[in-house]
Design a protein that fits this description.
Helices cover 43% and strands 28% of the residues. It is an alpha+beta fold. Strands 1-2-3 form a three-stranded antiparallel beta sheet, with helices on one face. β2 and β3 form a beta hairpin. The radius of gyration is 23 Å and the shape is elongated. It starts with 9 loop residues before the first helix and ends with a strand.
């Protein structure tokens, strides 16, 4: 009795390898975008833990935030992407920005990110 061969042919292996390669390439473009976003969220979270942050003026908050972004080598978050609104209990800080990375030829990967945190005064 003749036994059928099992397995992939060379052509199907190359096709699968190409598909996997495209996804790995896309991951190489997306991972830095999301790691920067999580650095923004982490910076806002750590700043919100500071007791004096709610009593600080807006320029000082922006300066402290962008110092933390410089430590993380963030290039996509600009001062015009940060919005501070004074609230009675402190500040509402919003960071909205867009990251565009070229993918293949005329195709781009676009990420829109939004992070928001409230800096409140701690009542005694």
């Amino acid at each position: 009795m003749k036994r059928a061969q099992r397995g992939m042919t060379l052509v199907s292996f190359i096709v699968v390898l190409g598909v996997v390669g495209v996804f790995v390439y896309m991951g190489m473009k997306l991972i830095p975008m999301y790691s920067e976003y999580y650095a923004v969220k982490k910076a806002l979270e750590s700043m919100s833990q500071d007791v004096e942050m709610a009593n600080t003026d807006a320029e000082k908050i922006k300066d402290l935030f962008f110092r933390r972004m410089d430590v993380n080598y963030s290039e996509d978050v600009k001062p015009e992407n940060m919005k501070l609104v004074r609230r009675d209990a402190g500040w509402l800080v919003t960071v909205d920005y867009e990251v565009r990375r070229p993918l293949i030829a005329n195709l781009d990967v676009v990420g829109r990110f939004h992070a928001q945190k409230e800096f409140r005064r701690i009542s005694d």
